[in-house]
Specification:
Blueprint lengths: L1 H5 L4 H9 L10 H7 L12 E2 L2 E2 L44 H11 L5 E7 L3 E4 L11 H14 L9 E4 L11 H13 L4 E7 L10 H21 L1 H4 L8 E2 L3 E3 L3 E6 L3 H4 L3 E15 L8 E4 L2 E3 L9 E3 L7 E6 L3 E2 L5 E10 L5 E7 L5 E3 L7 E12 L7 E9 L8 E23 L3 E4 L5 E11 L2 E2 L6 E5 L5 H8 L3 E5 L7 E6 L2 E2 L5 E2 L2 E7 L4 E8 L3 E6 L12 E9 L2 E9 L2
Parallel strand pairs: 3-6, 4-5, 8-25
Antiparallel strand pairs: 1-2, 4-6, 7-9, 9-22, 10-21, 10-23, 11-14, 12-13, 13-21, 14-20, 15-20, 16-19, 16-21, 17-18, 17-20, 23-24, 23-25, 26-27, 27-32, 28-29, 30-31, 30-33, 33-34
Length: about 575
């Protein structure tokens, strides 16, 4: 209202509106808000039941994408959060288990957003990441410079100005917060120059309504200044990591062939060179750990003989207080139709306080639980677990086991054994790490099956690798056949029918000019009456996936029925029929 009223007369406001996009979410935790007001229950959680209690704290439910397990969802050291469903700071059954946190992360991932401001109450504080660590972010100097300046703009009700600071100590440590997630996802995964701030407004949870206009006007000044920074300064001063690029499908090729990839948000992360790696001789097996832990990257986990399902060894989480430990596969695995992640586990964890999870990621930064499960309590005989990987068919993924403990009662820990599928490539060779184009051509390449991934470099160092692309190199395959493969236009879904979420994978069309231009990609979902109920427009990646949670564009859950998913790109159209079951 303040913006629209003065747009025609205030040049500063007009410049902001004309040059940047502003997305406003008045309330994220709608169910919790409706439950709390007008009865003033001091309720901070949502209203989703789990474990005999009600609600997850949304601001403990987000992931972490900076590569440090201490900043991931579920870290409960230093009382940052809790795994007890009855606690006020319950972090949820799994990362993004809340409808509202999942919706917000999907919204952010579908756009290029450079600045993020959240509002909470209360304390008259102005905060920035990290919440999980007292160490500064790579952009701590910029955060403090602008954070101090903005805090000085906001007058307190009782005099003075808002108190600025890193949220870890101002007011207390937190894990799973949206500010930490936004900053880490933008700068490590999305390749977007992004900053996140948080304002703790007012002096009470239930502020005297006579004071609201003053609070609003003071905070509006800060929001206007942040919008101006977004327009003028964030891009030039913040350099994110180069996002994992989209490598084009290769398929069956002759001995002379070209690999192509598409940078993600290059105008934001400014890649200067690329590294292409060739992998071959994959060995996929059920890992009994009898040959050691060479297929794993261990962060706190160790090879143990104390417990084992087969042979003499298993992987052990450790069992210290305030612990965050993990075991991640060294090499990625390309998921095949019908695949499941299977393993045997044995654990003794303080029930509802210490927790272990199994996770999957395409890039080693953005992790998801393989299912809606967690391991807590006692399981003192070995039990087999199997979880479908249907949502990742055709993707190359890493697997990870992670264990988190708080600082109180300590039990025996988590053991895992006989894990499948675990892939180890016999040969891993860097083709080149000084490629300045987004293509690389092989001539007289040996015959066989080879795999490739690529990563980019900028002033922040090397980014993460793309997913794997497989090349079957043979004799007598023509250039025309190779061209046809790289122009593939594809749409697929899994699992169908679905109840809660549907994975939609797409590959758009390409114009094979000197820039190998990716065409605009639009994904629309129709009901049987032909009405558009959901849109994913202007998708920026040539080949990627989105998750549909059976909702419409306003976030409302749709009823059971038949829906049509249509992919459109450069005149091409493809449609899949899906069934939603409630």
């Amino acid at each position: 209202d303040s913006i629209t009223k003065v747009y025609s007369t205030d040049n500063e406001i007009r410049q902001i509106v004309d040059n940047i996009e502003i997305y406003a979410f008045p309330v994220i935790n709608v169910d919790g808000y409706v439950y709390d007001y007008p009865n003033q229950r001091s309720w901070r959680k949502n209203r989703e039941p789990f474990g005999g209690a009600i609600g997850t704290d949304p601001n403990r439910n987000y992931g972490g994408c900076c590569g440090d397990i201490r900043g991931d969802w579920g870290a409960v050291d230093e009382s940052q959060a809790s795994h007890n469903p009855a606690d006020l700071t319950f972090c949820g059954a799994y990362v993004n288990s809340g409808d509202e946190t999942r919706a917000l992360t999907m919204y952010v991932k579908s756009r290029v957003i450079n600045a993020y401001m959240t509002y909470h109450s209360y304390g008259e504080l102005f905060l920035w990441p990290w919440g999980w660590s007292g160490s500064g972010t790579p952009d701590s100097i910029v955060y403090a410079r602008w954070g101090n300046r903005i805090a000085e703009m906001i007058n307190r009700l009782g005099g003075g100005t808002y108190t600025p600071g890193q949220s870890y100590s101002n007011p207390y440590p937190t894990s799973g917060g949206s500010d930490d997630w936004f900053y880490s996802w933008c700068n490590w995964v999305g390749g977007v120059a992004g900053l996140a701030y948080c304002t703790e407004v007012g002096t009470a949870f239930y502020q005297n309504t006579s004071q609201l206009d003053l609070i609003f006007s003071e905070n509006f000044k800060a929001l206007k200044y942040l919008a101006q920074l977004c327009r003028d300064s964030i891009g030039p001063l913040i350099e994110p990591k180069v996002a994992p690029p989209q490598i084009y499908p290769i398929g069956n090729v002759g001995q002379s062939f070209t690999i192509k990839w598409h940078p993600v948000n290059p105008s934001e992360n400014h890649p200067t060179q690329w590294e292409l790696v060739e992998l071959s001789n994959p060995n996929v097996k059920t890992d009994s750990l009898e040959s050691g832990s060479g297929r794993w990257v261990l962060q706190g986990f160790t090879l143990s003989t104390a417990q084992h399902h087969s042979g003499s060894y298993s992987l052990f989480s450790g069992n210290t207080n305030d612990m965050n430990s993990a075991a991640q596969t060294l090499h990625p695995y390309i998921v095949q139709p019908g695949d499941s992640l299977t393993f045997w586990c044995y654990y003794n964890l303080e029930n509802n306080y210490d927790v272990a999870v199994a996770e999957v990621s395409e890039n080693t930064k953005d992790w998801f639980n393989v299912d809606t499960m967690r391991f807590t309590g006692t399981q003192t005989s070995w039990v087999r677990k199997a979880y479908s990987l249907a949502n990742w068919v055709g993707k190359s993924v890493y697997f990870r086991f992670r264990c988190m403990t708080d600082g109180n009662t300590l039990n025996g820990g988590f053991y895992v054994d006989d894990i499948r599928p675990v892939c180890l490539f016999g040969n891993v060779n860097t083709v080149s790490n000084s490629i300045t184009d987004t293509t690389y051509t092989f001539t007289n390449h040996p015959v066989g099956e080879f795999y490739y991934y690529v990563r980019g470099y900028n002033a922040r160092g090397w980014g993460d690798y793309s997913c794997l692309a497989k090349a079957s190199v043979g004799v007598g395959i023509s250039e025309a056949e190779e061209q046809k493969i790289s122009e593939e236009f594809a749409l697929s879904v899994s699992s169908n029918p679905f109840k809660e979420r549907l994975m939609i994978r797409y590959a758009g069309s390409i114009i094979h000019d000197t820039r190998c231009t990716v065409q605009d990609i639009n994904l629309k979902i129709y009901d049987v009456a032909g009405r558009i109920v959901k849109q994913f427009n202007h998708l920026t990646n040539y080949q990627s996936s989105v998750i549909w949670f059976g909702d419409d564009d306003s976030g409302r859950k749709l009823p059971s029925g038949v829906y049509l998913i249509r992919l459109e790109s450069d005149g091409f159209k493809k449609t899949e029929k899906v069934i939603l079951l409630r």
